[in-house]
């Protein structure tokens, strides 16, 4: 069975997922090729034993870019992993007789808060026309494209949202992300609680709420922020104004290693799907405080593997961080339970097996299109 993965993004959770998935699918006997954004990423896949080539897609209308090198593609299944790749590659793949799979990793920030939260307000500063286009234009286009093949939803929250917005249920499958097991972290010790977060520094990730909450916590703490984005400068200014000891590191290639220096991981998103940053933290044995959005409650069991609060609730977030600052034994218990949950429910080998089973089903069980 020949599987081609297409990804046009340079970094982020979907790419991290694909770096784990592709080698395991190849290990299960599939012939795998990854078409990705640049040669650096192609090299990262090759280091993992997977054939890869750079196929840059500059924008959502870059049909010429999508066609470049497409004559080299001989696939039974083409699996796309972002909006641009899905828009451009799915029709081309279907026209060549391949089965088509698309993983919908997330939603535009304007409607992301509605994932798992009916009636939630729009995110960001979305003008009425922009919001109307997303709801009545973008979602309808995605629903139409889903009829070309199968759409994988990584969370039950996403699956429900898609059905509610006109996606044919028979075209949808729930397959979560997998996460590598990690060695248990050792608390850094010292006088200050070390709190960490990893996110795109954009409004929907709620890092402003985290800074406000940290300023209210009645315990010494240091905040380590991994990630970058358009809000970084304003967030750095906010931290200084609030007197929060926050260190902004930008994007880091070794996030799992950096997690070992934390006592607590916090993700205060206003909207999310199944955040890999939370999964990485749980796999590393860290207690997690996160918001009740999207598929987060499918990861963090409130009161068992961490604490879950409502988005944009500064007082509740500060209270959760403060409570865990005072109780290191509880932090340890949550961390151990979270690591166990990742091992038992999100093993990457099991995810790859489910994905290959889907591919074989689409190909009629023989590994070639029927």
Task: Explain what you see.
The structure is a single chain. The chain has 370 residues and is α/β, with parallel strands linked by helices. It has 14 helices and 13 strands. The protein has helices at 13-27, 39-47, 63-67, 83-95, 128-146, 156-164, 207-216, 232-242, 255-258, 276-283, 296-299, 314-326, 328-345, 348-362, and strands at residues 2-6, 31-36, 51-54, 77-80, 99-103, 150-153, 172-174, 193-198, 221-226, 246-248, 264-267, 288-291, 306-309. The strands form two sheets. Strands 3-2-1-4-5-6-7 form a seven-stranded parallel β-sheet, with helices on both faces. The chain has a six-stranded parallel β-sheet with strand order 10-9-8-11-12-13, with helices on both faces. The longest helix is centred in the middle third of the chain and has 19 residues, at 128-146. The radius of gyration is 21 Å and the shape is globular. The mean pLDDT is 91.
Share in helix: 40-55%
* Helix count from the secondary structure assignment: 14
- Taken in chain order, the helices and strands follow as EHEHEHEHEHEHEEHEHEHEHEHEHHH
β-sheet strand percentage: 15-25%
Biggest sheet statistics? 7 strands, parallel
The CATH top-level class label of the largest domain: Alpha Beta
CATH architecture of the largest domain: 3-Layer(aba) Sandwich
Please, how many domains?
2
The overall average pLDDT, rounded, is: 91
CATH homologous superfamily of the largest domain, by name? Glycogen Phosphorylase B
Intertermini distance: 12 Å
Low-confidence stretches: none
Going across the biggest sheet, name each strand in turn.
3-2-1-4-5-6-7
**Overall strand count:** 13
Radius of gyration, taken over Cα atoms and rounded to an integer in Å: 21 Å
CATH topology of the largest domain: Rossmann fold
Shape: globular
Query: Given the helix and strand composition, which structural class is it?
Result: alpha/beta
């Amino acid at each position: 069975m020949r599987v081609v993965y297409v990804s046009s993004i340079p970094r982020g959770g979907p790419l991290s997922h694909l770096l784990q998935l592709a080698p395991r699918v190849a290990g299960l006997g599939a012939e795998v090729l990854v078409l990705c954004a640049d040669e650096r990423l192609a090299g990262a896949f090759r280091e993992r034993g997977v054939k890869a080539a750079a196929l840059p897609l500059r924008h959502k209308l870059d049909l010429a870019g999508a066609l470049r090198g497409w004559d080299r593609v001989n696939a039974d299944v083409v699996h796309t992993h972002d909006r641009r790749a899905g828009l451009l590659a799915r029709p081309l793949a279907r026209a060549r007789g391949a089965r088509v799979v698309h993983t919908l990793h997330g939603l535009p920030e304007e409607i992301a808060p509605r994932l798992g939260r009916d009636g939630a307000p729009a995110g960001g500063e979305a003008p009425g026309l922009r919001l109307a286009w997303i709801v009545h234009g973008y979602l309808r286009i995605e629903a139409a494209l889903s009829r070309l093949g199968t759409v994988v939803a990584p969370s039950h929250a996403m699956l429900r949202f898609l059905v509610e917005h006109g996606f044919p249920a028979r075209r949808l499958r729930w397959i979560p992300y997998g996460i590598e097991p990690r060695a248990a972290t050792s608390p850094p010790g010292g006088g200050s609680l070390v709190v960490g977060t990893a996110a795109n520094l954009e409004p929907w990730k709620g890092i402003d709420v985290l800074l406000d909450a940290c300023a209210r916590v009645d315990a010494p703490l240091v905040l380590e922020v991994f990630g970058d984005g358009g809000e970084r400068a304003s967030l750095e200014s906010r931290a200084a104004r609030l007197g929060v000891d926050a260190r902004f590191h930008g994007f880091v290639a070794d996030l799992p290693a950096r997690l070992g220096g934390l006592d607590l991981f916090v993700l205060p998103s206003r909207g999310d799907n199944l955040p890999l940053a939370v999964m990485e933290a749980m796999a590393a044995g860290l207690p997690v405080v996160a918001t009740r959005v999207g598929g987060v409650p499918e990861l963090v069991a409130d009161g068992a593997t961490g604490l879950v609060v409502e988005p944009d609730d500064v007082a509740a977030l500060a209270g959760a961080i403060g409570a865990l600052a005072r109780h290191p034994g509880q932090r340890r218990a949550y961390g151990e339970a979270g690591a166990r949950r990742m091992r038992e429910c999100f093993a990457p080998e099991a995810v790859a097996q489910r994905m290959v089973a889907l591919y074989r089903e689409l190909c009629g069980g023989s590994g070639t299109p029927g």
